[in-house]
Amino acid sequence: MRKFLTLGCFVAALLVRPAVGVADTLTYTGLGRGATVNLSLNGVAESGWAGEINWTLTAGGVSRAITTYCGDLFDNARTVQYGILETTAALDLNPAISHDAVAGAGTKGAYLVNTNAASAHASDIQAAALQIAIWKAMFGNTFTLLSSTAHYDEIVKAVALYTVPAGVSSIAGYFDVANGSNIGSAANGQDQILVGTPEPATILLVMFAFLVTFGYHRGLKPRLARVVAKSR
Fold this sequence. Notes:
Helices cover 40% and strands 28% of the residues. The protein is of the alpha+beta class.
């Protein structure tokens, strides 16, 4: 049983170990929940997508479907992105990774995704509002949502619900920084915050751990009974 348990821990460590996505690729597959919004950026009106972006992420030879929120204002997500995907923790250490990001932008963006992405996925308005809230948390009040945006009042009301409390320390996802620091129409989709979803490997790992623990305790009772009998 000890060998079996040791093997299980080794397999678990391999599955959950952190890994840096060297030469990973993000392949765009479509837009998720969200809406087209109108913003005023430095006095210039622009329209763009606010909400989820769907991709296939290939890392370490394994591909899986992921959903992201954009970490830069109006980067145009190109079809395929290549490069080293930096973590949101790295953005905290170096805000220059994401153009004009404020201090702690990585943690703030990650907190909003971790806390709200699952519920926002049920609504286009909430997904759009969550994206706007991420931009506000990461870049401050450097832009204005224009009232010409469809469902403006509902989106504004939803944005107000997505706040970041002081002292949060929630890190999640990656930023693709391979495309440089261009902004606006010159940018190419860098800085995507991944929305986590349960993977089959993770679910199997939890089931495996439960079975090993259950089996271990089932086998422990007879051994304890034998020890007690011998002591008598």
